[in-house]
From TrEMBL:
One of its GO terms (molecular function) is hydrolase activity. InterPro entries: YdjM-like. The chain crosses the membrane at residues 92-109, 156-177. Keywords: Hydrolase, Membrane, Transmembrane, Transmembrane helix. This is Metal-dependent hydrolase.
Length: 192
């Protein structure tokens, strides 16, 4: 799955989980957090969006601020790739547990941030389980699990259709969660 599909699944999972759990509607900043979190499991691939570090910014101050994060991401990527390899620990239940534990322990001050991070990362594993290779849910056991028989090809028409469906579901869920936002859109559309 490409980065855009993962981001759609991330924000969709956040909206869906908020509806299912009946929690407060997530604040708007939680959606970009869920999208970025949805790219985290692929940090084990040095060529992925986050594994490759953050792109250099035009603004020198911003560049200086983001560089430590960028190097940390690259170091984590290299370390994971060289030890456990791509699509292993970070795509398993064990990896999910190792991620959720510090989120639960240290970020209790913001349930919205916790939900966004967990939904983003978990949605990545679910999205990858739709493709041909599946995911090694029980890693270090080497058995891959797929949600669809045969799975769908990454980057193909099927992935585009799945992403479009997920986007539709997200827009509907967001409309239910944030009726004021829906009203705003209707107003903008009405004035065009
Ligand atoms: Zn992945």
């Amino acid at each position: 799955m490409n980065a855009t599909t993962h981001a759609i699944f991330g924000v969709g999972a956040l909206a869906g989980a908020s509806l299912a759990l009946g929690t407060e509607p997530p604040p708007l900043w939680a959606y970009p957090v869920a999208a970025v979190a949805s790219w985290l499991p692929d940090v084990d691939n040095p060529r992925s969006k986050l594994g490759n570090g953050l792109s250099r910014k035009k603004n020198p101050l911003l560049n200086t601020l983001t560089r430590p994060v960028s190097w940390a991401l690259r170091a984590a990527s290299f370390g994971l790739f060289r030890t456990v390899g791509h699509r292993t620990l970070t795509h398993s239940l064990l990896g999910l547990l190792l991620f959720c534990l510090p989120v639960y322990l240290f970020l209790g001050f913001s349930p919205a941030l916790q939900l966004a991070l967990v939904c983003g990362v978990a949605s990545h594993v679910v999205a990858d389980a739709l493709n041909r290779w599946g995911v090694p849910l029980l890693w270090p056991l080497r058995k891959n699990f797929r949600l669809l028989p045969g799975g769908i090809r990454s980057g193909g028409v099927a992935e585009f259709c799945v992403a479009a469906l997920a986007l539709g579901a997200f827009v509907y869920a967001a409309y239910l969660l944030h009726p004021a936002l829906g009203g705003l859109v209707e107003e903008v559309v009405g004035t065009v």
